[in-house]
Write a structure and sequence with these properties.
Number of domains: 1
Largest sheet: 3 strands, antiparallel
Order of helices and strands: HHEEHEEEEHHEHHH
Number of strands: 7
Strand content: 5-15%
Shape: globular
Number of helices: 8
Strand order of the largest sheet: 3-4-5
């Protein structure tokens, strides 16, 4: 079994675990989405795994800087593919996880502190810090759930050949560093741009951002452009030694 298939199988297994716990994913690509629409996150490592390694916060599966450099060197380098045929509907999200909860609400609870929910699983109170711009919020409506590797970026770097089922797994991946609650302003500023076109305003987060981006691209065997690889190399250079 190829590396890509192994990781994808692991991601689907995580969804299966949720189902056993009473959470059932849906496969309806026409299901209504929450906000977070945009114009146009390998081996796990705990925060501080290498002593001086930058804190990864709540983001799961972030590799060490050393591992990210190894994975980056192995990624296929290619120009962006065509956007022909792309639509966000081909990456169904947010998946229902049972008990009226979905992927968005799950990430909001994971990334916040003191989060309380109503009977429909919506976050009604809590505190969130957007790591992209160091802004703090107490209203969940001010937050978007960012896809570390945007859906459109994934499409033009290999996801256009995937099945709809695999694209859904990618869009709702809670195992790898792909989903993160951030300010709506920063998420929409990022859009579908790669690291060579947009970096988090908070420079201290560049190390974690690059490690997460590389991990997701490596896990799903997505390509990078020359400029993307150069910028990621520079961003990994900001990681503490």
């Amino acid at each position: 079994m190829g590396r890509q298939q192994w990781w994808w199988g692991r991601g689907l297994a995580a969804v299966a675990v949720l189902a056993v716990a009473g959470c059932t994913a849906i496969d309806d690509p026409a299901a209504p989405e929450a906000s977070d629409a945009k114009p146009s996150l390998s081996a796990s490592a705990s925060a501080g795994a290498e002593g001086g390694e930058a804190d990864t916060g709540t983001l799961p599966g972030v590799p060490s800087a050393e591992q990210a450099r190894t994975e980056l060197a192995e990624l296929k380098v290619a120009p962006h593919g065509s956007m022909s045929g792309y639509s966000r509907a081909k990456f169904p999200h947010w998946a229902e996880l049972g008990e009226d909860c979905n992927t968005r609400e799950t990430v909001l609870e994971r990334d916040g502190t003191g989060v309380t929910r109503d009977d429909e699983c919506r976050a009604v109170s809590g505190r969130w810090t957007s790591v992209y711009d160091d802004k703090t919020f107490t209203d969940a409506s001010d937050l978007d759930i960012d896809h570390m590797v945007p859906l459109a970026n994934a499409w033009r770097s290999g996801a256009n050949t995937w099945t709809q089922v695999k694209r859904k797994a990618f869009a709702n991946d809670l195992t790898h560093p792909q989903l993160l609650a951030v300010s709506a302003a920063s998420n929409r500023s990022k859009g579908d741009q790669g690291p060579d076109e947009w970096q988090p305003p908070s420079k201290p987060y560049w190390c974690t951002y690059a490690r997460a981006w590389v991990s997701v691209k490596s896990t799903y065997e997505l390509s990078v452009t020359e400029n993307e690889k150069t910028t990621l190399t520079d961003m990994l250079g900001t990681c503490p030694s």
